[in-house]
Design a protein that fits this description.
Blueprint lengths: L5 E3 L10 E9 L3 E6 L4 E5 L1 E3 L10 E2 L2 E9 L8 E5 H6 L5 E2 L6 H4 L1 H9 L7 E9 L2 H12 L1 E6 L4 E6 L3 E4 L2 H9 L9 E6 L4 E7 L2 E8 L3 H9 L2 H6 L7 H9 L4 E4 L2 E4 L1 H23 L8 E5 L8 H6 L4 E2 L6 H13 L5
Helix pairs in contact: 5-11, 6-8, 6-9
């Protein structure tokens, strides 16, 4: 949930043609994380909207992008402009689509999320070969492939591009993390690895051994529930004249470490409400996850914590006391592993 917004653009040679790109894409409930084999990275919120009639042209910024779908394999999108990221919230604060609030949204909007991430990369015609993670790959894998594969002619910042997507692979969430740990020799195949991924809309416990998933539990709670506790806090509601707080505003204030919510009467500091909500969240939700993991704890060789929620203030300390290792790059490590899988699938070195 705690995002380090970023666009890393390495200079690319002018090939005069289409750039083949291997892509690791973690289209999470809270944030889209994309990493390519060209050293490019993009992170932006998983929010989608259709602009109003007053929206003025293309936007490609650090926290969002607008894309006009000019033509291609998705005839249902032809002529439509789509906003992805914080720009979607800014343009439609009441009518945007938050991926975390819709169980099937990752599949239904798979192409929009991917094009949003690609819009933050250096603009070039691309042949993209992606590996994409989702919480239920067996249910949604085929749908995602149908949604994204083909040729797509798009316009970002007044520049028309052709994006072709093929040879897509769908991976269960967390497998990218495990693959990355194996490839960097942080764990061995014989190790029993327990991973808890604290996501925005869901949290996932997975046990791995011998390169396989041994056990898995998807919890229908995540950082958004923590934000919901803060949004409903009596003191904040009072400051907002009885109205519930906006979780997107709260999220941004936590990321920026201001803990400040602007009201009609000035700024409201919600540090106390954050701590109270964190205690409630930890007691109810995190305890549930640890209860499920407990039978395997005695024989586990490694306990890892990943996901954007691992960066929440106070969370790392809580899990470190329980002998978990909080992984570095916890927000992007799954995408790094997905890219490594893409390289392996396509004959490259990891």
């Amino acid at each position: 949930m705690i995002a380090t917004y970023g666009i890393t653009k390495q200079p690319q040679p002018d090939t005069g043609g289409t750039m083949q790109t291997l892509l690791g894409l973690d289209s999470g409930n809270g944030f889209i994380k994309a990493i390519t084999d060209k050293g490019e990275r993009a992170i932006l919120p998983s929010i989608i909207a259709t602009p109003s009639e007053y929206f003025d042209g293309g936007v490609v910024a650090q926290n969002g992008v607008s894309v006009l779908y000019a033509g291609g394999s998705r005839s249902d999108l032809v002529g439509k402009r789509i906003l992805v990221g914080d720009i979607a919230y800014n343009a439609a604060p009441l009518n945007h689509i938050s991926i975390a609030k819709h169980p099937q949204a990752k599949a239904d909007y798979a192409l929009e999320l991917l094009l949003g991430a690609v819009g933050l990369l250096p603009q070039s015609d691309r042949l993209i070969i992606p590996v994409i993670s989702i919480h239920d790959s067996s249910t949604f894998g085929d749908q995602i492939k149908q949604q994204i594969e083909g040729t797509h002619r798009v316009v970002y910042d007044a520049q028309g591009l052709t994006i072709e997507i093929k040879n897509t692979a769908i991976s269960p969430e967390g497998m990218g993390v495990y693959y990355y740990l194996l490839k960097t020799k942080k764990v061995s195949l014989d190790s029993l690895v327990l991973l808890l991924d604290l996501g925005f809309g869901t949290s996932i416990y997975t046990a791995f051994i011998q390169g396989k998933i041994l056990d898995r539990k998807v919890f229908r709670w995540g950082v958004r529930d923590l934000l919901g506790y803060i949004a409903q806090a009596p003191a904040l509601r009072k400051a907002l004249s009885g109205v519930e707080g906006d979780t997107q505003v709260i999220r941004s204030a936590i990321e920026n470490k201001t803990y400040s919510y602007r009201t009609e009467d000035g700024d409201f500091d919600f540090r106390d409400q954050y701590q109270q909500a964190l205690n409630t969240w930890a007691t109810s939700n995190l305890k549930q996850a640890l209860d499920v993991m407990r039978p395997r704890l005695p024989k586990a060789n490694h306990l890892f914590l990943a996901g954007g929620g691992a960066s929440l203030p106070g969370i790392a300390k809580f899990f470190t006391k329980k002998k978990f290792e909080v992984l570095e790059n916890n927000q992007t490590i799954n995408a790094l592993g997905l890219l490594a899988i893409a390289k392996s699938r396509n004959g490259g070195k990891n």
